[in-house]
Amino acid sequence: MDVSVGSKTILALIYLALILVAEKRVDATIGVNWGRESAQRLIPSAVVDLLLQNGVKEARVYTSRDDLLQAFAGSGIGLTLTVNELFVLDSYDKCKAWVRNKMLNLRMATVRRIYIGSYPFSTGLRNKDTLKTSMDVLLYLQTALNDAGLGDQVKASFTHTSELLKPNMTKPSEAEFRDEIKEEVKTMLRFFEQNGSPFVFDIVPSFLTQAYNMDPLFAFVGESTQVVKDINGAVYTNIFEFAYDSFVWALIKLNASNVKVMVGQIGWPTDGYTNGNASTAERFYKGLLPYVASHKGTPLRPGAPIDTFVHALTDENRLPHQFMRHWGIYRSNGKPKFKIDLTGQGRNIYPTSAKGIMRMPERWCVFNGNQTDYMKVMEQLDFACTKSDCSSLRTGGSCSHLSFEKNVSYAFNTFFQFQFQNEKACDFDGLSYITVDNPSTDECIFPVEVVAGRQENYVQTGRQLNYKVSKGVLHYTPNCVVPLFLLSILGALFWN
């Protein structure tokens, strides 16, 4: 029997049942996501050490590489993997072979979940055939895990965004899955019920508050005066519990209220975005993480643990879109950007720094100021930003206030550091030179990066950025190739 929003008696009974179920106290998990799309990245052993020192019990990586599995082996940290190449697992026999080859590492690394692909139900870039392939891989992989005796330990699942839900809702009880994907979602949820797999969704707080026309402070726990009142006396004061209960309501309406719900990704950018800075990120986590650890739950599931993964451990300056590059708690040198207590206890502390990270010499590559051939300057600027990361120059970024000459210097230096200070990388057709005088300003840091680490098997996925110049200042915009994650989020902005 499908549950109707208009049936208040049934909803009240379900609401009461959820409260009774939630009374059994189980600790919530605060995990951390770690991606490696960066020019200077921490080695896996250093990351495991960081997580252990900071009391992190679970982590997610965006790969299934054996070197990562081996680094986490014996650490006691529960690990979530990601398999992005669906063709590797598009039959039961392939999945069986994949599980057999990774059997020891899956056990030793305490792998708990394997996420398949990226947002299979998103609109625009996904078609029915792709969705069917994703659903088939889900079945094949979990069956192979079950047959290998790993089914109790490892669960296969997908990640999702709020794009799965119908637009224009004003409160969580109105949430339901989009009609065109509802049958596939039902199939997925029945599978999750049979195998104990979680329903995982990601939250980008600043985007969701815009999508729902909310007070921007609604993105923060405990800061907004806005209140969303729902049925059965439910009251929402922040986007975290609002989004969580929206998915719970959508599950209820498909008779899947017993499926575990997890937040697979939530965070706040520290650069390249208006209000994206370290102090705002610190404020965001200072409200969120104690809330998650408090066992408060949500209005629909009071007292229920909400497993939540912080995004992310480090910046990823080679990701395709500049908005996604500065979500890290740590800089590339292993030093934290802001105070955060990853145990959720709310302590006013900096997380532990990574050990053994060596910084390159204090020197920078800068523009010599020669604008005689303006087009040549622009060509070299374009090259530097295409091959490195100029996202801090975009509107709202920490370096968006710079003069044109400083913009060019920032771009040249970023490329120079990406190339680990190879002197040949500071040429730019005679427009640059190396200096030991720090060109940084009070707001904008011209980075000096760390020495080259282990970069094997790295495949660059960055795309060229377009820009225009207005009054001597650069304004960056992405080209037409945008990651699925961002398209999913941007789509939500037009719901209302």
UniProtKB/TrEMBL annotation:
One Pfam family here: Glyco_hydro_17
Family matches, as Gene3D superfamilies: 1.20.58.1040, Glycosidases
TM segment ranges: 473-495
Entry keyword Transmembrane: yes
UniProt domain X8: residue ranges: 363-446
Entry keyword set: Disulfide bond, Glycosidase, Hydrolase, Membrane, Signal, Transmembrane, Transmembrane helix
Protein biosynthesis in keyword set: no
GO biological process: carbohydrate metabolic process
Xref: InterPro entries: GH (IPR017853), Glyco_hydro_17 (IPR000490), Glyco_hydro_17_plant (IPR044965), X8 (IPR012946)
Signal peptide (UniProt feature, chain positions): 1-28
A GO MF label: hydrolase activity, hydrolyzing O-glycosyl compounds
Similarity annotation: Belongs to the glycosyl hydrolase 17 family.
Protein's UniProt name: X8 domain-containing protein
Species in which this protein is naturally found: Perilla frutescens var. hirtella
